[in-house]
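INFO  loader      accepted 1 record
INFO  loader      residues=122
INFO  predictor   begin
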Amino acid sequence: MARILIIDDNYMLRESLTRLLAEAGYEVNTAENGRLALQLFQSLFFDLVITDIVMPEMDGLEFIQEMKQHYPQAKIIAISGGGRCSPQDYLEIAGALGVSATIAKPFANKDILAIVEGLLSS
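INFO  predictor   done
INFO  writer      dumping tokens
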């Protein structure tokens, strides 16, 4: 069973994604910011990380940079609903940092599942 880490400061989104992915057969852990996620990643192995971009403490872009520096093979999906910039701007930056995939919020369950399944089967 693949283990997925979801990072988002929005509790409702974390819970919704957790439920969706657990029902699809994945083991899911969550964190509300990049700093907590890095601590989790150091103690547990994850097959895939789904991270928001705009978050307190350590945002998604900082998290992605840290991950790519220390775990260059990590599979990461960046998600964003925007903030000071449009979601596409944030996702383009995340893409340049080397994430495996990006998707703008709001997204359909089938779309995020398709990306997750595609990355975990490769």
